[in-house]
From TrEMBL:
<comment type="similarity">
    <text>Belongs to the class-I pyridine nucleotide-disulfide oxidoreductase family.</text>
</comment>
<keyword id="KW-0560">Oxidoreductase</keyword>
<keyword id="KW-0285">Flavoprotein</keyword>
<keyword id="KW-0676">Redox-active center</keyword>
<keyword id="KW-0450">Lipoyl</keyword>
<keyword id="KW-1015">Disulfide bond</keyword>
<keyword id="KW-0274">FAD</keyword>
<protein>
    <recommendedName>
        <fullName>Dihydrolipoyl dehydrogenase</fullName>
        <ecNumber>1.8.1.4</ecNumber>
    </recommendedName>
</protein>
<keyword id="KW-0520">NAD</keyword>
Amino acid sequence: GNVDIQCDMLVLGAGPGGYSAAFRAADLGMNTVLVERYESLGGVCLNVGCIPSKALLHTAQVLEEAQHMGEHGIAFKAPKVDLDKLRAHKSAVVSKLTGGLAGMAKGRKVQVVHGVGQFVGANHLEVTAADGSKKVIAFAKAIIAAGSQPVHLPFIPEDPRIVDSTGALELPQIPKRMLIIGGGIIGLEMATVYSALGARLDVVEMLDGLMQGADRDLVKVWQKRNAPRFDNIMLKTKTVGVEAKKNGILVTFEGEQAPKEPQLYDLVLVSVGRTPNGKKIAVDKAGVQVTDRGFIPVDKQMRTNVPHIFAIGDIVGQPMLAHKAVHEAHVAAEAALGEKAFFDARVIPSVAYTHPEVAWVGVTEEQAKDQGIKYGKAVFPWAASGRAIANGADDGFTKLIFDEATHRVIGGGIVGMNAGDLIGEVCLAVEMGADATDIGKTIHPHPTLCESVGMAAEVFEGVCTDLP
Ligand code: FAD
């Protein structure tokens, strides 16, 4: 058939995985085409994920801190919320970044083609633009970075008062009563935002705890601080019925902590996970394998079963995180050029940007126990940190997990203000194979929260012994 565009490298999807792969490929000298269905580059992360959620979480944090200033002798009046302005602020943050990407693509001569891409062969992708016009792109190599989207529960009706994370970020209203279905990171971040804006919250989770994957000791601190936001935290409980009524959304629960009566809500957020887009891009036409769930299997070079086609990001599996996608992107672009690049991360950090933040990396204490790893641990309570006390954050703590034999750090968790920033040091320590002495003898600036990482190592070494 007709070929409209010919390239060395085709990248499908312009999220953090896709734009990073395209930019790296172009920097390495490949003639690169980046295909994206939406006008705005940046994918889920920049448009409806990481970035807008953090813009709103920052607003929420300022609001909440202002409320506690009474204890410092500073009184503010009750806040007046102008939702239109808040939405505009969030959009401005997003556009600044997505606009930047467009400029970076141009600077590298990455050709951006807007439209929905579908494979039509092992070296051809057809792109259908919004106006229905079609283009065929022939490529020598390809990187699939088509991402994921929210899971929709089949029994939940369509109604403007029922939203997924994308809908919640649009801030349709400030509900009086809000239900969050699914107590993972995304649900709890949005809960934090809506609570700060005045909503009362319920959360329902099928498993036996919120924020699965995180160390339970960390979650306890989060839960204690956040208890006032919630009327009802329902664990080991399922949502079994959702009905759109005139006066609200009527939800029926089943399980250990289910209320007997159905409950009425003004807004329901469904945040029960994300599903990969592997089955929506006709990869079978290219001979690329895809699992029943829609993930594309890859090797350590991010190569699919078809040697000239790579896949990265949410579409290749968990954890579905932007920083993982970016690193996989660089590996794929380099491997496509024949470099000996491999995805070989020891650890990938996770962060809940809630208040307080909860961050963890590597082996958690529960995992160490389950896997029979001989470990040692050290906890530095922030009640012993001058900076944490000054910041009103002394309920936080820093925990490090060490290999018992080598004293190398193999994991860590932090709960408290800026935990997401602080965990970076633990990531580096694990990757570098640092042991407790390396961390403890590193001079950290005083007074900071990052000192707590050094102090935890000293606790492990028995250097720092008189803790509260
Ligand atoms: P995506 O970002 O999903 O991008 C895929 C792109 O491909 C999209 O732009 C899509 O339009 C395009 N596409 C798909 N199919 C086609 C097609 N057929 N044709 C053309 N284009 C197509 N991660 C973090 O690390 N930190 C966070 O704080 C964080 N917060 C989040 C908050 C929320 C509310 C959500 C929903 C997610 C969050 N994530 C966060 C996860 C993060 O957004 C994803 O891991 C990341 O975006 C994955 O990048 P990706 O490149 O694999 O795919």
